[in-house]
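Researcher: We're teaching a course module on how sequence relates to structure. For the next exercise, students receive a sequence and then see the predicted structure as tokens, so they can try to spot secondary structure elements on their own. Here is the exercise chain.
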Amino acid sequence: MSASADLLKELRIDRNRPAPPSGPGRGLIVGAIVLVLVLAAVAGWFVFGRNAGVQVRTAGVTAIGAGSGGAGASVLDATGYIVARRIATVSAKITGKVREVMIEEGQRVEANQIMATLDPIDANAQRELSAAQLAAAQSDVARVQAQLKEAEANAGRLAGLTQQQLVSRSQYDQAVAQRDSLRAQLLTAQRNVKVSGDSLRISDIGVDNTVVRAPFAGVVTAKAAQPGEIVSPLSAGGGFTRTGIGTIVDMDSLEIEVDVGEAFIGRVQPKMPVEATLNAYPDWKIPAEVIAIIPTADRGKATVKVRIAIKSRDPRIVPDMGVRVSFLEAAKPAGAAPAKPSAMLPNAALAQRDGKDVAFVVEDGKARQAALTLGRKLGDDREVTAGLVGGENVVLDPPDSLADGAKVRVENAGADSSDTQ
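Model: And here is the predicted structure for the students to work with:
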């Protein structure tokens, strides 16, 4: 019990015990704590705040390399497709049942070559009727001519007898009237012959319409009908009536169509040399040339269509193939000095420092100021003939406070602005 009592006494608060000192020693401790906190804040700023840098957006610089075949440098790349300017789905002019189809996919046909024939029973019957009508009209002409010949002879005899007063005047007048009537009948019969002849020619056209011919020379790319099917120039039978026999493509009319973004269409000019590469044959460079820039834009895609002529004809080039094209500068004259390497960057990356054109290249988290020598304006881009070589990432819309060597934080990946797709 004495031990427990001693322990309880130790837990009692001694109110007579003197308070701890509150002099200079305690102030030094508080000051030391404050100093430690300030030093920690400064160190945190150096580690986290100072190293964060200015937040910027960047874009890629594109190197403009020399094209092949003596052409100049590439100023724009785009993608498109091979298309045919001359393509036709051939159909019959009349509705009828297919009797024979004489084409197959991939077959070469010449102009006016027979592609198919329709059942000609109705057309032949109409032609036979027209021929019979023509023969009847011709027979009627012969009949009237014979009657007219007799009437003219009779009127001539009665004229002499009337002068001799051997017959009455009324008999002569009747003979003359008969002659004139037969002359009118002959004229009508001759006109009927002409009408019957025209009807026969129309019937011949109807028979010819049962034969489907190629409108031009080309290659068959689709066979749409089979013997026994009903074909019609109009889809009168809904989905059960064919409207075509086959499709022909003139391979000599193949060209390239590409959609160029509105922001880059200023780089393209008519007659501009182009280098095309088919997706199916990536190592084959095809020489081409800009035909025309279609003067309208697609508001949905913000693009302008460009037509490109293919200078090299080859059976490997077929419609609807994917193709990538490079628009080139005009070829340099023979003996001219080679063009210096150049690059292309967005106009938004340009800045002025001390009256000079500069751009800020992002390297290892810092902005390096590069003095530039500028060339042509290429839509929303600008050619750089000195100061950049291509492949760098430059700051877009650099703030006036951005200086050489400043730390930056990139909020996007560098992009190549030369591709329209």
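Model: If you want an answer key for the exercise: Residues 66-70, 413-421 have pLDDT under 50 and may be disordered. The chain has four domains: 54-64+339-410, 74-85+252-328, 87-119+210-249, 126-202.
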